[in-house]
Structures are given as structure tokens and as C-alpha cells.
Amino acid sequence: MNETREKLVEVKNLKKYFPIKTSMFKKGNQVVKAVDDVTFHIYKGETFGLVGESGCGKSTLGRTLNRLYNPTSGEILFDGKDITKLNNKELQPFRNRMQMIFQDPYSSLNPHLTVEKIIDEPLEIHTRLSKNERKEKIIDILEKVGLKKEDLDKLPHEFSGGQRQRIGIARALSINPDFILCDEAISALDVSIQAQVINMLEDLQSELNLTYLFVAHDLSMVRHISDRIGVMYLGKIVEISKSEELYDKPLHPYTQALLSAIPIPDPIKAQNSKREIITGELPSPIEMEKGCRFRSRCPFAKPICAEADPQLKQVDDEHYVACHLY
Ligand code: SF4
């Protein structure tokens, strides 16, 4: 483990369970274990990619560490401060430092507000800048995200999907955050636009010293932007590694299967590659049995896999895996 780099976010044994309602008003005893005992950290200035199939808990994990959801248990440290149990007022200074970019920019932007008003809202609430100073800042941010001063008076529907995502990014940047949760932030965009937005996010990161948590199901895009990647399966992180190493030497059987499902553009390479198709039943996230939760789909499962839940174990510098094979 690299001890010299400073951590911006540290998550320890984090759980987020959602009670299941048995009627409109009554909560039953059963829970969905969306995030189940997750421990990891994000270094200052890095991009940490979080991947997994839909429903694996990656968005819930992101939103819980941003304190949009209250955790069930565990700890969240932000820049060394424990923010797990802070109330809304105490959280405010941290909320300013932790912003979010959503998947669907259209539904996250108020369609009746102009671009200027959309970006001005957080500035008016969270800063003491005068109206003129705010306007100058808004123009500056718009230029940073590739939009123009002439766009100030336009409404969201006058822009393309990629441009609307740029407005969402400008709004997130307006109050100078350190940390941005990009929750499937490019999934709804065309591939060519995805690459442009990724390049812009990378430029902004070096210019403004930002730290990103990049949540996505598209492994090929996560590889391009991430320094390290965590792979999630049914509420657990099952592997963490530097990005290149994860793609060159995936250890967890689930990671191997996810990677082999990525389409290969070269037809000759694609023909020679061995695809691992995930078969077997997905266990219920409500009645989780003991042992490894991937075992019903794992071709390498052995008796111990039904007995003990494998914990994340360090196997190399910055490479961790939760599997009884290691
Ligand atoms: Fe497969 Fe066992 Fe490893 Fe789980 S712990 S991934 S079942 S080998």
C-alpha cells in the first residue's frame, strides 16, 4: 500500500441497507444490502473508477459516501474528518467540497432556468460574491467547460446532450469543490461525445486539482480515465487495482468475466480471445447466504467458498482481491 500519498476519502466497513416496506406505511424486518461492509480509499488528485453490473450497489456507495444517503453503519472520512454522523448544518462545508455530476443532465437541470441562473444558484447560496463577481466567475467556468458567454441566456433544451452535460459540470465546479462524484456521467452520451467529455474532465482535473469517483458500468471508458479501479459485486468490492494492472492481470473470477465481455474492435483478436460468460443464478440481495456471494456463478468455487465470506486481501502493491483462490 502506498503510504506516502494523501487520502481525500476513506471509507471503512461502510454499510447501507434499505428496509423493505411490507405495506405503504410499514417497514418489514427484511433489508436490501445495497452496500455491505465496504472499505477503500481515494487519493487526492486521483480518479477512482467504480464498476459493476447495474444493481451491484456502486451508485448507492457513491451517494452514501457523499452523504446523500445516511449510512447504516461504518465510517466515512473526508480529508481526515469523520463526516459519518454529521447533521445537515455540520455537513454544509463538506457538501460544498463534494459535488456530483449526474447521468442524465437534462433531468438534473431546471428546464425553466437559463444557464446563468443554473450556475449562479450554488454561487449565490454558498459564496459572498457580488452579482457582478458571480457573473464574471460564471463566464470563466463556461469557458473552462467549452461553452461561451453567448450561452448565458439560453435554456437547457437549446443544447445538445453533450453540451447539457457541460452545463452540469460547470454547475458542479462553480463553488470550487475538491471531489466530484461522476455517477454514470457519460453513459447517456454518444461514444464520440463521451471521449470529448472525458478529455475535458481530465484537463479540469489537472488544472483544478480535482479528485474523481467515476461510477460506471462501461469498463472500457473507466479504463481510460481511472488511475485505480474497484470492482463491485452485490454490495461488496471484490477487487481493487491500478487501472492497467486490472485489465492486464484481473484476478477475481468476476472481474475476469466482466473484462472478457467487453467487445474487441479487432475481428482477428476477437476471434482468438476466450470469452467467459457468466452463468448461474444471481443470489437475492435480501436473503444473502453465508460464503462468497459470487459462488453460484463462479466456475472455480470450492467448499470453503460456501463457508466463509472472502475478505479483501493485498496481493501486490495497490492490488487487492476478495477470493479464496488467493
Ligand atoms: Fe469463486 Fe470461491 Fe473466489 Fe468466490 S471465493 S470468486 S466462489 S473461487
Report on the architecture of this protein.
The protein has 12 helices and 12 strands. By secondary structure, the protein is α/β, with parallel strands linked by helices. It has a domain at 109-175. Iron/sulfur cluster binds next to loops. GO terms for molecular function: ATP binding; ATP hydrolysis activity. InterPro entries: AAA+_ATPase, ABC_transp_ATP-bind, ABC_transporter-like_ATP-bd, ABC_transporter-like_CS, Oligopep_ABC_C, P-loop_NTPase. Residues 9-259 form the ABC transporter domain. Keywords: ATP-binding, Nucleotide-binding, Transport.
Uncertain runs: none
Total beta-strand segments: 12
Mean pLDDT: 89
The amount of beta strand, in percent, is 15-25%
Helix count equals 12
Q: Termini, distance in Å? A: 17 Å
Order of helices and strands: EEEHEEHEHHHHEHEHEEHHHHEE
Bound molecules: iron/sulfur cluster
Structural class: alpha/beta
Taking all Cα atoms into account, the compactness measure Rg is 21 Å
Largest sheet: 8 strands, mixed
Shape: globular
Across the major sheet, the strand order is: 6-7-8-3-9-10-12-11
Proportion of residues in helical segments: 25-40%
